[in-house]
UniProtKB/TrEMBL annotation:
Pfam families listed in its UniProt record: Phosphodiest (PF01663)
InterPro entries noted in UniProt: Alkaline_phosphatase_core_sf, Phosphodiest/P_Trfase
Domain of life: Bacteria
Matching SUPFAM superfamilies: Alkaline phosphatase-like
Name this protein carries in UniProt: Alkaline phosphatase family protein
GO molecular function: hydrolase activity
Length: 534
């Protein structure tokens, strides 16, 4: 699978094409889980759809890939910084840092470093509420009244602590690079974005103020009209309802208002949102009487087809509003995805309970080294495996690698029937210095996983049968996402087959706005190219 060497080669020499006249606005739309194959399937069957019009009206990059690991958090960060995890320091939304202190630490003297960095819904003052604890009345109908500064909705006691200052580390200050929003704002331009957790205030960048209007309704809150504990992702119809709130926020911003539609601010120079409905349609075995996932290789099943139609219709609403407000000639629309989803071939699905693998690893380690603590400090296992260890020595990382690759057992297939697996479901494990090299950082880096495992195709680590797909790994199904740039000054009906990466979106946005792409720290460090759009 593609490793660090590929990415270094792919961005070795910066290419900055002669820019077109600067656009006044760039609207970025991310469709979580969407593959390039999904876009091709849809546009071939619906050539007059909003997605097809977007493709025909611009440049389609048919071989675009997101970053590794293919998680929402580093994927979105890459699109707005121009850098991968080794540069931004963001490997997943829930990781480990060997230098920070545990959340809630108030007296830092003598506290041993090593802490979970949980930038999920767990940060919310109230993760059960779609307003993340703001206390709005009349939810969810009143959700557009939610604040545009979600930092105020984060409980500081849930944040890891900096041992030097003994203060909580907010997501924005954890980011090691600046963002498109900060550069645009520094040039006097207005910025806005909408995403799924308050923790996405990481996109504000190190200044903490890069986004003027950040709308983050909590997707993992209790869904309206569903049993307690069921969030907006557990039923696809609910996910669609959730997505429409963010669409309305974008419509309000196109009209020149803030997302709440209470004050006139002018249409942002950089703004947009992410869709979640396609992702849940890919992951749920069924919902609303329709089968989820894929019917056969790259053939969307009934639920996924329904959600591609949903995204198409909502995108059509946004582009129609641009035309209505006479902004279509001065706005470039970029369509992409934070990540794909694997597998797209349902016959290859193998669900494995990772908790059994990791508890076995801990037991084996302690048996071989009596008196020591558990080896696994933290893990993130979706369809890849990221492990942080309590012992980071070569002895320990080699032990973990050897143990995992020696494991066999039985999981379940797409029909919930037993299915054997070998090598822990892994095809490759980068351990210790090899993991650091894979991500382009020095061994011993406080953030890098001690093991990065690339799963065999079709493997999903889950303790049940509630998923038929996942993301986070490094298979083509995780990485191959759509990338389309469409606007008044973008060549139409162009298909660019060169290998490109979604992190190239960041410098491209700045180039479209007439700003310097090299003002992004990650672009300078990784020599990230501007996408050829002229």
């Amino acid at each position: 699978m593609l490793g660090g060497a590929f990415f270094a080669q792919a961005v070795a020499s910066p290419i900055h094409p002669t820019p077109a006249p600067p656009q006044q606005h760039v609207l970025l739309i991310s469709v979580d889980g969407m593959h390039q194959s999904d876009l091709a399937w849809w546009t071939a069957r619906y050539p007059h759809s909003a997605l097809a019009r977007l493709v025909d009206g611009g440049t389609e990059y048919s071989h675009a890939q997101t970053t590794v690991p293919s998680d929402s958090f580093p994927g979105m960060v890459a699109q707005f910084t121009g850098g991968g995890p080794g540069t931004t320091g963001v490997y997943y939304d829930d990781t480990w840092n060997a230098d920070l202190l545990p959340a809630g630490t108030t007296d830092c003297k003598g506290v041993k470093p090593g802490a979970e960095v949980d930038f999920t819904e767990d940060l919310d003052k109230n993760k059960a509420g779609i307003d993340a604890g703001q206390g709005l009345k009349g939810l969810p109908g009143s959700i557009l009244k939610m604040t545009g500064t979600p930092q105020t909705l984060i409980n500081p006691r849930t944040l890891p602590v900096d041992p030097k200052t003994c203060k909580p580390v907010y997501p924005h200050s954890y980011l090691q690079t600046n963002t498109v929003f900060e550069v645009a704002q520094g040039a006097g331009l207005r910025t806005a974005w909408s995403d799924k957790h308050a923790a996405y205030e990481i996109l504000d960048g190190p200044t903490g103020t890069g986004i003027d209007d950040l709308f983050t309704p909590e997707i993992n809150s209790n869904a309206n009209g569903y049993p307690a504990g069921n969030d907006w992702t557990t039923d696809n119809k609910a996910t669609e309802q959730y997505d429409t709130y963010k669409v309305q926020a974008v419509l309000n911003e196109i009209d020149g208002y803030n997302h709440q539609h209470t004050t006139w601010e002018g249409t942002p120079a950089v703004f947009g949102m992410n869709f979640q409905a396609v992702s849940t349609a890919q992951k749920l075995p069924s919902s609303d009487g329709l089968k989820g996932g894929y019917s056969s290789t790259d053939e969307p099943g009934p639920l996924l087809q329904k959600n591609l139609a949903f995204v198409d219709a909502e995108l059509g609403r946004m582009t129609a509003e641009l035309r209505k407000r006479h902004l279509d000639k001065t706005t470039t629309v970029i369509l992409s995805a934070k990540h794909g989803q694997s597998p797209t071939d349902p016959t290859q699905l193998t669900r494995i309970d990772d908790s059994t693998l990791l508890s076995g690893l801990d037991a084996a380690w302690k048996k071989a080294h009596p008196g020591v603590r558990n080896l696994v400090a933290h893990s993130v296992d979706d369809d890849g495996m990221l492990l942080w260890l309590t012992d980071r020595s070569k002895v320990a990382t080699d032990f973990a690698q050897k143990y995992l690759l020696a494991q066999s057992g039985t999981g379940t297939d797409i029909n919930d029937k037993p299915k054997a697996f070998t090598a822990g479901g892994l095809s490759k494990v980068y351990a210790g210095a090899a993991a650091a090299k894979y991500f382009g950082v020095k061994p011993g880096d406080a953030r890098v996983p001690d093991l990065f495992g690339i799963s065999q195709y079709g493997v999903v680590y889950t303790g049940g049968t509630g998923k038929v797909a996942e993301h986070g790994g490094a298979h083509a199904d995780d990485l191959d996402v759509p990338l389309v740039i469409s606007g008044a000054d973008v060549p139409t009906e162009v298909v660019d087959t060169a290998a490109v990466q979604t992190k190239q979106i960041a410098p491209t946005i700045l180039s479209l706005l007439g700003l310097d792409p090299n003002s992004l720290v990650a672009v300078e460090k990784e020599h990230t190219r501007v996408l050829p759009v002229s």
